[in-house]
Amino acid sequence: MRYFIGLGANVGDRLTNLREAVRLLEALGTIVARSRVFAAAAVGGPPQGPYLNAAVVLESELAPLDLLARTQEIENALGRDRPNEVRWGPRTLDLDILMCGARGEIIVDEPLLRLPHPRMKERGFALAPLVELDATLMHPEVGRPLKALLSAAHSAGQAWAPTGDTL
Asked: Which residues of the chain carry a pLDDT beneath 70?
């Protein structure tokens, strides 16, 4: 199965955390594409520092819920304390399965996991790395290109910029 995974970090050595997460994701399958790293202000939650964000495409034999459990293990290993954190607050690492399927076309609606990610369509920091990976991807629920959703996020005042770093 092909997974599109978003990565974010705004606590500690953000770039190192993202790179270590990618290294640990490689144990779950094959990473076939990596975006550049982007900087963006936090969206929602308490006041906090800016995030570094990126995305990868992972080919894995894991089922979606199994991959979710493994990505949460990676988050924990890199210092995320999910039970004690503030919702949408600062974190050492956030791994989000954003889409799955060869073209991101598979819809998953489980109590623990919804795909595509339910807030992805309005978050430029998640869309920008995905569009960089594949500018032709479509959102399977709203039927719009991710590129158009990214443009709408920009028009709504969201800002992000490539840092020049790679994963």
From this structure: none
Q: Is 109 a catalytic residue?
A: no
DSSP 89-109: ---S-EEEEEEESTTS-B-EE
Per the structure, the complete domain to which residue 132 belongs is given by 2-166
Whether 80 is a known active-site residue: answer yes
Q: pLDDT at position 83, please? A: 84
91 is catalytic: yes
Residue 157's alpha-carbon distances to 41, 47, 151, in angstroms, are 11, 18, 10
User: Which residue among the candidates 2, 96, 119, 165 is catalytic per the annotation?
Assistant: 96
Domain count, the chain: 1
Alpha-carbon gap, residue 56 to 129, rounded angstroms: 8
Tens of pLDDT, residues 106-155: 999 999 999 999 999 999 999 999 999 999 999 999 999 999 999 999 99
Structure tokens at 128: 């920008």
Rounded Cα distance between 157 and 80, Å, is 29
